[in-house]
Design brief:
324 residues; single chain; 9 strands; alpha/beta; TIM Barrel
Length: 324
């Protein structure tokens, strides 16, 4: 049976482009993924970042869903500390009502932004209420609210499937105890992948949503017609990640960026991208199959590292062909 593949889309705003261009690219990517047989496309919530346009995940999902017909779409994820569970239940209940059988809801514990932006979102740093918020949200989307007298309309009875996202043992144990699917962010936080997945599988408790553990592992990818072209695109992605995370606001030449990446300062950036399939159809296919075994994954969700929409579309097509 072919390895299930999905895509993670951040609606990247490339240099010289606008958010409108990024959304047009997201629609094109989802249509390509649908035609190529991908399982789902997820959109990640980020804030206060001019290069990422996926801040309002529910709105973006609605737009893409109206331009596609069958592929599953969802948040990968909604950063629940930024929101009231009732609001998210209403948003995703609306999506599930408009597009039945196509909507997923991945939930993250991190804010997806910096402390100043958290305050701008009107959220305060306090006790960790994530486990309780997940249960409250689950109640709104089911038929047994945990808040007497309060229901989510729309949302009630839609049973939008929930997924716990994580990069640590906390998320693994929570997903296991709640009997929910677990998605590990190994595409940017590879350190605890195997340990977290092992803990999740060992401690999993069946639930109404899920009878057996289900693991989705994140992996980066750059696929092209030639190995040299794939590595050229990867080098661009590494420089872009460096500029976004380590030297924000500084203009660097390619040579300067490569020098930093080769230094101890840059090693952290490269380590974040440790799990990345790079190369031709045969090379990325072999990598993805081996990585799925390594991660004990039932499904892979791929973050495409190519810089342009055209390159990401071709990479997505090659990846789908590599595991067919």
């Amino acid at each position: 049976m072919p390895l299930p593949l999905s895509l993670l889309d951040l609606a990247i705003v490339a240099p010289g482009e606008t958010a409108a261009d990024a959304f047009e690219g997201s629609v094109a990517l989802a249509r390509t993924a649908e035609a190529a047989g991908y399982t789902r496309v997820w959109y990640a919530e980020h804030h206060n970042n001019p290069t990422i346009a996926s801040s309002a995940t529910a709105v973006l999902i609605a737009h893409v869903a109206s331009a596609t017909s069958s592929i599953r779409l969802g948040a990968g994820g909604v950063m629940l500390p930024n929101h009231a569970p009732l609001t998210i239940a209403e948003q995703y209940g609306t999506l599930a009502t408009l597009h039945p059988g196509r909507i997923d809801l991945g939930l993250g514990r991190a804010p997806g932004t910096d402390r100043t932006t958290m305050h701008a979102l009107r959220r305060t740093v306090g006790p960790d209420t994530f486990p309780d918020d997940v249960r409250e949200l689950q109640g709104y989307l089911g038929t047994s609210t945990l808040v007497p007298g309060v229901q989510a309309y729309p949302g009630y009875g839609t049973d939008v499937p929930l997924y716990i996202l994580g990069s640590s043992l906390f998320g693994a144990r929570l997903a296991a105890s709640y009997g929910l699917p677990y998605a590990f962010a190994s595409h940017f936080a590879p350190q605890h992948l195997q340990e977290a997945v092992s803990v999740y599988r060992a401690e999993f408790q069946p639930s109404e949503q899920l009878a057996e553990p289900y693991v989705i592992a994140g992996v980066g990818a750059v696929a092209a017609e030639t190995e040299a072209e794939a590595h050229r695109q990867l080098a661009e992605a590494q420089r872009r990640r460096l500029k976004m995370m380590a030297v924000r606001g500084r203009e660097l030449s390619d040579a300067e960026a490569d020098a930093i990446l080769a230094s101890p300062q840059g090693q952290g950036i490269l380590e974040m991208m440790a799990y990345t399939a790079v190369g031709t159809r045969e090379q990325v296919g072999e990598y993805l199959e081996a990585f799925a075994t390594h991660a004990q994954a039932d499904e892979l969700i791929v973050a495409l590292h190519s810089s342009t929409t055209e390159e990401r579309l071709r990479s997505a097509q090659i990846l789908a062909e590599s595991v067919a």
